[in-house]
Amino acid sequence: MTKDPTGCYYRRLDADGELQVFESTELTASGWGPNLQHGSPPMALLLKAIEELPEARESLRIGRVALDILGPVPLEPVRVRAWIERPGRRIALAVAEMEAYTSGGYRAVARASAWLLATSVTADKASDRYPPLPDYPAAPKPPGFDGSGYAKSVDFQWFSVPDGEAQVAWMRPHVHIVDTEPTTPWQRLASVIDSANGIGAVLNPLRFVYMNTDTVMHVHRIPQGDEFGVRARMSVGPDGIGVTTAEIFDRRGYIGSSAQTVLVQRR
User: What Gene3D superfamilies does the record point to (predicted)?
Assistant: First the structure.
């Protein structure tokens, strides 16, 4: 995977006790506001902290990751800590929390949890729910996916799908999560999956705000490579609450699914 050697979402600063401290770069910036971070960089950084726990390096692997956004994540220094909430030899729950600096001090702005499961040999029973994504004609990017901030850190490829089908896009992140530190397949996936909410949108962003409060992904096969496809669709209820669901693919095929709760408001 080729990365911009100077491009990253966060730069590591001196630790504060058990807390890892990072400077947030402009590549984390969201399209919803000039001083807000996109949801994917915090998810990737928290997942990195979880993967660095000794328990996540042994015989357990990630099966599900859930990000809860506890408040606006500003483009300010952040600090992160991770711990094992529920230890176990076959099943463990890991948690990571991000605090951001605001006037008056640090406050919690995001939390991720990951179920770590023991692996075993089930290759003879392996199966995918969906076939690989078909080849669709290319389509231009919609507004909001080609510009500054986070949008500069990911290559988006859009496709023209038949009427009535969910929108499809492929994404390739091309910057590091922290400085030039190695990026794992899980971190690469986490650095793009929050975008499913925009890919599956059914609302005009010039007329509506549709911000997700969480991102949950279940993955039955370890992500491969540096390109990920999503087939996403948003459903909007009559009272301003929506849900975006997506199927996730790498170039080998289907690897899992994601879901996001969405706050919908008219501008």
Answer: Acyl-CoA thioesterase, double hotdog domain
DSSP at 19: B
**Any domain includes 1:** no
Q: Domain of 219: which CATH number?
A: 2.40.160.210
pTM above 0.90, yes or no: yes
Q: Tell me the CA distances in angstroms from 106 to 74, 75, 99, 142, one per residue in order.
A: 11, 13, 6, 36
DSSP state of 162: P
**Which tokens in the block code for residue 48?**
């990195």
Residue 3: the pLDDT is 46
- Is 2 part of a structural domain of the chain? no
pLDDT at residue 55 in the model: 77
CB 132 within 8 A of CB 253: yes
Mean pLDDT by 10 residues, the chain (267 residues): 66 94 95 86 97 82 96 94 94 96 87 95 90 91 75 92 93 95 95 94 88 96 95 96 97 97 95
- Of 243, 251, 204, 263, the C-alpha closest to 226 is 251
Asked if residue 94 lies in contact with residue 82, where contact means CB atoms within 8 angstroms, the answer is yes
DSSP state of 150: G
Give the Cα-Cα-Cα angle 153, 209, 148 (nearest 5 degrees): 25
Counting the structural domains of the chain, the total is 1
First-to-final CA distance of the chain: 40
Determine the Cα–Cα distance for residues 27 and 40; give it in Å rounded to an integer.
11
